[in-house]
What does this fold into?
Amino acid sequence: MKLCVLALQMQRSAEIRTELSWMRIAHALAALKAVRYRSESRTIVQRTKISSELAALLKRLGISAPKQLMAVVEAAETPSTA
It folds into this structure.
């Protein structure tokens, strides 16, 4: 129950800060995704491009945009079987 109340408070706070409806805020935020690319030797995670509308929304909310390149992980070498 406390989590629901907190979520509603955060939602209302975002609406007040941006002067937009929650539906519009959620729609803009839904465009931001993390994409994972895999190859034999590594996995790369990067975010999608941030539109000017989304950048302005994040700024009004006081949220910094995530880094373009979020993670690069080298694949662990597996011992060869003889």
Observations:
- The mean pLDDT is 89.
- The chain has one domain: 2-74.
- The two ends are 57 Å apart (CA to CA).
